[in-house]
Amino acid sequence: MTLKKRALGKTSRPVRGRAAAGTPAAEAAEAGAAAERAERDEGGAGGAGAEGTGAHGAVLDRYDVAILGELQRDARLTNAELASRIGLSAAPTWRRVRWLEEHGYIIGYRAELDRRKIGLGVLAFVRVDAERNNAQATRALEDAIRALPEVIACHYISGAGTFELHVVARDLDAFSRWTMATLFKLPDVKDLHTSFSLGEVKAGAALPLRHLRGGA
Fold first, then answer.
1. 38 pLDDT band (50/70/90 cuts)?
2. Which of 63, 92, 129, 170 is 20 to 30 Å from the Cα of 3, by its Cα?
3. In angstroms, rounded to a whole number, what is the distance separating the alpha carbons of residues 134 and 121?
4. H-run or E-run covering 98
5. pTM (global) more than 0.85
6. CB count, 10 Å around CB of 97?
7. Domains of the chain, earliest start first
8. Is 126 within 8 Å of 165 (Cβ atoms)?
């Protein structure tokens, strides 16, 4: 049975305060004045022009989709590099990135680490059985799960079990100790069922955008 999952938001940090040097977000302060001048020169934010202005409403156009694709591949692109790749000038590109951030399409930028290189050799998938009919207890369990750095993802699932956790640990002994000392002590946990990754076939992939291009 295919599991339908609702992410609990463990996998990304907010856009605010996360700018890294050389990224479009890091260039925002420097690009802002130039963008505003270019915006006035091009007829203002509401103008319709071939390059657009970033105020697109609910529908993403081909430039927005291109921006999302390029930044998923390499979030370290400078604004100038991004503009060159999507075929726009720098100012409207910067405005579009800002609009995509402000409207929640881009929710953060981060470095993807090799967990093995940093000594986290175990990746476990833990199905947590909990009481589904107690909303207060469920919220308390969700809050407790969010606070655990070892849990890198959590989904509320259909079928058997209540939550599915993706957990990293140094080794099996460390995972076992953590389970007994931490996981079993979480509120409303009735039982645990664990499977271990034997090797990653695909991980950290970009989200598909092909379905957006039909309306671009």
1. low
2. 170
3. 36
4. helix 90-102
5. no
6. 27
7. 28-102 (1.10.10.10), 113-196 (3.30.70.920)
8. yes
